[in-house]
Amino acid sequence: MPKHYRPAGKKKEGNAAKYITRSQALKQLQVNTKLFRKLCIYKGVFPREPKKKFKGNHQTYYHLKDVSFIRHDPILEDLRAKSAYRKKIIKAKAKRNKELADILKNRQPEIKLDRLVQERYPHFIDALRDLDDPLTLVHLFAALPASDRLKIEVKRVHNCRKLSHEWQAYISRTHKLRKVFISVKGVYYQAEVEGQKITWLTPHGMQQVLPDDDVVYDVLLSFLEFYETLLAFVNFKLYHSINVKYPPILDPQLEASAAELYALARYFDANSRPSEKVEATQEEESELRLAQLQHQLPSNEPGALMQLVKDAADENEEDEDTKECKNLFKNMRFFLSREVPRESMLFVIPAFGGTVSWEGEGAPFSETDQSITHQIVDRPTQGHVYLSREYVQPQWVYDCVNTRIILPTDAYMVGRVPPPHLSPFVDNEEEGYVPDYAETIKRLKSAAKNEILPMPGMGKEDLDDPTKFVG
Amino acid sequence: MGKIAKGSRKGKKAWRANISTEDIEDFFEQSNKDALSGGSLSQLPNDSLFYVDNSKDLSVKRKIEKHREKVLRCDSVLQKNPFVQALPSSKPKQKKKSKKENKDVVKEKDETRDGQKSDGASASGMVDIWANEGEGDNPKKVPKPSVIPAVEVEASGCSYNPTFESHQESLAQAVAEEMQKVYRKELGPEPVPITVPGEVINDEDRYFLEVDNGSDDENVENLSENQDTGNENRSRKTKKVTRVELNKRERHKELHRKEAEAKKREELSKQIDSLPNIIEEITKEDEEKQKRHIRRVVAMQERLKVRPPRLGKHKFEPAPTQVLLSEEITGSLRKLKGCCTLVKDRFKSLEKRGLIVPVKGKRLDELSTLLLLFLSLVVAILLIRVTVDYLKQRL
Question: How many helices (H) and strands (E) are present in chain B, helices listed first?
Fold first, then answer.
């Protein structure tokens, strides 16, 4: 009978058997720290806190199962092969063999993270649930300057821009945006997709700084790589659900001039497969027209959806909220001045059913167009004033979006300090304190819905007894 | 003695006695035998002795397979009746098969996926990875690293155009954080100074210092001498113990023992009397412990909502709240002085959720900056000296 004995050094139970320190993990996996960090990020492994830190408080502990999970993943071998390949390039360079080095660089093996994405998010709803962080990171990197020293590649930044625009175009088109909040850090958006509330943060339009201390860029780039893949798949699925082909092939001229959202909108219109034959012919016509227009236009930026749209996407599947949002800015045409944050506006306004244009080439309509109902300006004074339209500050748009009614524009006129921008993420009743402007908004809302509200300072007693109104 | 007993090796007699001729005799025997039986084995060619067996090898059965092949007597009895089918009493392991099945299913999925890829994918080769959903996958719960959400929306006071009250709140919070840091620095222990300003020592004082050093040695010598004499004196004073003394000691011991016993009994009876009190005390203690435990658990949960547990060498430093100062609230989006280091915010968020181990602050504190400066100065001076010497030598 073979005797079962425990090998020397292997513990049977307790914390020591379940957790290992980072250095032990490195020895087991035979990788260096950088690679280990990357693997942890790709596989979603995070350090734990065991009840008893048997090797000291200054060590990082990982679950033994997590480490074996990493060990048995084929991506480990792929990464090792990649680093071996990199050594070849270094060797070629050292031997002053430039051609070989260049050839090797071009033929570098690429690692695909598709399988890992599927492993970590077996269902689509899981991916949606975890979409906050990826969206924020991708939007952030879309706004960062490329840096050779920190290994932020131009290609990466462009890819992030592309993904972020695709996402925004989808949300805008399907009217899924619900809340917007402008804070010091940036602009917070919240959308609702398939019942999941997704919140993300976009930086302001200013130049972002790359801080050197406290931030390890390798880590951020590994996260970014994983999240890019995830977001690409999510976009693919979402686009398929509205019958649009992904990845969208945009007009290269528009792309070059950073007109992505606009180009995407046109792509949507051109490519949403119609249900009947009649619309097929119309679609061809519109495609032709599109091609013609695109040749004429070199320009920039996302724009007029509603003009070109003939059939809107599946209406029957929309719910109450979406319908409400779709009709908020119905029949309103906006024009943006130069100093207004363009990308944000071009995302928000079409998401609520409005049409928007701006100053510059390729815009759907110009400043002199008579049908413009609102012009958005942010200057202290406005020179020439058209009488047929209202001049408002950009905050008016955001506040309307948050309250879902068209607020009176006199408070937001040019030159005035607008009323405070309230956060839609704060539930005022919960806090117990309701700011004054919120009260005003409530009244306006109920006026729109023709309700009777009690007078300020009194309770609801009067409402119960109708005779009091009469007498 | 042993060496002599073994016998000396000198002399021819010694040589002759100890050499054994066994191997030579063996050889002769063997060769005789070979000659008689028809040639020695080592001289035959390989083929006559060995041949390669190409017939099929008997498979080596594992012990457990052999065990499973055994038919039990009860089964063999049933086998005789063809109409009764025997169920094997010992089931072979099902686990391995299901694993293999899963692998096959996964492989099939891969193949179909690849097939799909070639059909419906666009030029970039992208495919819907969630197309095969709803196949009743195991609802395996992935452990979340932290309850903290990925994107935390800031308070109302951090808006670009906040209400007065909410702005004051957020400002107060930011100020409180800063003041905490300041207080911690002030009230904490003083950092050790690198250099202590010294005083010039006079010549007289120096002599005193030297004197002290010398006297120390002398004191040590004196002490050791005194101790030795003390021991000897004491040893002359102990007397022999008499019988009287011994009896006295015994009697005293007995008395003490009896007293101790009586005391014990009294205490025991006291405890028995106050039993309900004791029970009360115990329950109270238990309650206290429970409450403490609950308090600690709740406190830990609260802490986890705000910061990660200690995961490495360095503590987690939360990012400061981004609030506009009162002067900076202009109400205009164009003039907004926004936050331009969103990268840091994202990194801190990752640390906060425990996905990354907090990184050490690369900011040098006073001590290390001063040290660095000092070292660099020293190195510079040395270098200059070396070059000057070298140049002097050359010239």
Answer: 13, 0
Length of chain B: 395
Residue A277 pLDDT level (bands cut at 50, 70, 90): very low
* pLDDT value, residue B247: 95
CA A464 to chain B, closest CA, distance in angstroms equals 34
Torsion angle (degrees, nearest 10) of CA A42, A43, A47, A52: -160
Which one, of B347, B130, B353, B114, lies nearest residue A117 by Cα?
A: B130
Q: Of A271, A234, A256, A215, whose CA–CA distance to A131 is shortest?
A: A234
Q: Which of A163, A166, A172, A176 is nearest to A137 (CA)?
A: A163
Q: Tens digits of per-residue pLDDT, A33-61?
A: 999 999 999 999 999 998 888 888 899 99
- Hey, are the CB atoms on A420 and B161 less than 8 Å from each other? yes
What letter does residue B7 receive in the DSSP assignment? -
Question: Span A16-30, mean pLDDT?
Answer: 90
Q: In B, which residues are within 8 Å of A207 by CB distance?
A: 340
Rg (CA), chain B: 48
Q: Chain B: residue nearest A398 by CA?
A: B333
Nearest to A426 among B156, B313, B356 (CB): B156
Each residue of B276-303: b (16+ CB within 10 Å) or e? eeeeeeeeeeeeeeeeeeeeeeeeeeee
Q: H or E element: which one contains A19?
A: strand A19-21
Bridge-partner residues for A177, per DSSP? A191
Residue of B280, B278, B299 whose CA lies nearest to B288: B280
Q: What are phi and psi of A183, to 5 degrees?
A: -125, -175
State the Cα–Cα distance between residues A31 and A22, nearest whole angstrom.
11
| Both structure tokens of B156 | 């109302």
CB contact under 8 A, B362 and A214: yes
Q: Provide the pLDDT for residue B321.
A: 85
Strand (E) or helix (H) holding A62: strand A61-63
Tens digits of residue pLDDT in A74-92: 999 999 999 999 999 999 9
Cis, bond preceding A247 (omega within 30 deg of 0): yes
**What pLDDT, in 10s, does the model give residues A161-175?**
989 999 998 998 889
Burial letters for A181-191: b for 16+ Cβ neighbours within 10 Å, e otherwise? bbbbbbbbbbb
Q: A431 — phi, psi (to 5°)? A: -65, -30
Tokens of B220: 């040590």
What mean pLDDT is predicted for residues B368-387?
A: 87
Residue A266's H or E segment, with its range, is: helix A260-271
Q: Tell me the CB-side half-sphere exposure of residue A415, using CA atoms within 13 A.
A: 3
| Domain A326-425 CATH superfamily | BRCT domain (3.40.50.10190)
